[in-house]
Write a structure and sequence with these properties.
Citrate_synth-like_sm_a-sub; 56% helix; three-stranded antiparallel sheet; binds acetyl coenzyme *A; 372 residues; 3% strand; Citrate Synthase, domain 1; binds oxaloacetate ion; single chain; transferase; mainly alpha
């Protein structure tokens, strides 16, 4: 048995949810470029879960279902005030809150298809409320209840600030949600599938996936990109900063990808949005800095930007706190996790690969009194 490091190139399952073929990303056969330009996030969630785009009536019923399930139990809101340490990372709070809402769901351990769908709706609906409520409560503000008449994108921005978002803000945020919704067998989705393949419940699967998304080699990279941009400060500083990192063999966050060879098709949409939003805010430094970094990393390392690179300046331009960037990824990606979890349940087999053992050979047991 020989191990493939990081399971590179290993095909671990079949899936009909999304595909990456020749650097083109599709959700259920629909090109991401079309979805990014034309679809609402609600349409995309419906597409991922049902395998087809909704008609007007289906979309209206589905959107209402999400809106009606967005509120959180008081106990979940209150638990944010009980954290033992200051500065709990919002991804840790989200991971904990998702596990906690499972305790308040009487159907948590029901495994039939209808119950799993109802739980999927509750999770999708509640994640934006969790992230925005935690963000406000940690600043000593009251959470804002979801507005049932708003889209998911508008509601998130509204619950975060209490202000009605502008059309441009909603359009940008909706596009970001659409672009992050699913991505074949990425690390967090694989985690979710491994978890539920034991026939564990959907709350466990999503909690596990949030844990995997948190790391900086995966979803956590968007916050790390923002930290890098903040450290660099000016367009002039970008080149020496990046060259010094590369000389030290350090990774540049937001670049590289296990699957894409020529580039991540989502990045161009986020780059466009970054340009538009930073210009509109009257200061395009972050965008210009990002373009400079892209030029250097692409020419020096032949590594194109991934989805996390330009999303950082997009979210910053929307006035969002930097440590909420990865939770926002989760607000979108929960739709993909759910689609994969439901697919896993529908044709389940335990996921249990082997390890190529490289440890010690046979050892004689030595009683503790005789050990050095
Ligand atoms: C939503 C997402 O998850 S998108 C990915 C988000 N993550 C990041 O942006 C973090 C930065 N990028 C990376 O760490 C990697 O490119 C990953 C994790 C995305 C993919 O990793 P892998 O396919 O395992 O590639 P791996 O880490 O083995 O790198 C291969 C080579 O490219 C180099 N490399 C890869 N990414 C980068 C980078 N961002 N900056 C500099 N060098 C890099 C590695 O140093 C390594 O070089 P070596 O062969 O000389 O040692
Ligand atoms: O597919 C991956 O490895 C990571 C990624 O881009 C994503 O999850 O969106």
């Amino acid at each position: 048995m020989t191990a493939t490091r990081g399971l590179e190139g290993v095909v671990a399952t079949t899936s009909a949810v999304s595909s990456i073929i020749d650097d083109t990303l599709t959700y259920r056969g629909y090109n991401i470029d079309d979805l990014a330009d034309y679809a609402t996030f609600e349409e995309v969630v419906y597409l991922l879960w049902h395998g087809k785009l909704p008609n007007k009536e289906e979309l209206s019923i589905f959107s209402r279902l999400l809106a009606e399930n967005a509120k959180l139990p008081h106990e979940v809101l209150n638990h944010f005030k009980t954290y033992p340490i200051k500065d709990v990372h919002p991804m840790a709070a989200l991971r904990t809150a998702v596990s906690l809402i499972g305790l308040y769901d009487p159907e948590a351990d029901l495994m039939d298809e209808e119950a799993n769908y109802r739980k999927a709706v509750r999770l999708q609906a509640k994640l934006p409320t969790i992230v925005t409520a935690f963000s406000r409560i940690r600043k000593g503000m009251d959470p804002i209840e979801p507005n049932e008449n708003y889209s998911v994108a508008a509601n998130f921005l509204y619950m975060l600030t209490g202000n009605e978002p502008t059309d441009i803000e909603v359009e940008a945020f909706n596009k970001a949600l659409v672009l992050h919704a699913d991505h074949e067998l990425n690390a967090s989705t694989f985690t979710a599938r491994v978890c539920v393949a034991t026939l564990s419940d959907i709350y466990s699967g999503i909690t596990a996936a949030i844990g995997a998304l948190k790391g900086p080699l995966h979803g956590g990279a968007n916050e790390a990109v923002m930290k890098m941009l903040s450290d660099i400060e000016t367009v002039e500083n970008a080149e020496p900063y990046i060259r010094s990192k590369l000389a030290n063999k350090e990774k540049i966050m937001g670049f590289g990808h296990r699957v894409y060879q020529q580039g991540d098709p989502r990045a161009k949409h986020l780059r466009e949005m970054s340009e538009k939003l930073t210009k509109q805010a009257g200061d395009s430094t972050l965008y210009e800095m990002s373009v400079k970094i892209e030029e250097i990393v692409t020419s020096e390392k032949r590594l194109p930007p991934n989805v996390d690179f330009y999303s950082a300046s997009v979210y910053h331009s929307l006035g969002i706190d930097h440590d909420l960037f990865t939770p926002i990824f989760a607000v979108s990606r929960v739709s993909g996790w759910v689609a994969h979890i439901l697919e896993q349940y529908s044709n389940n087999r335990l996921i249990r690969p082997r390890a190529d053992y490289i440890g010690e050979g046979k050892q004689a047991y030595i009683p503790i009194e005789q050990r050095d």
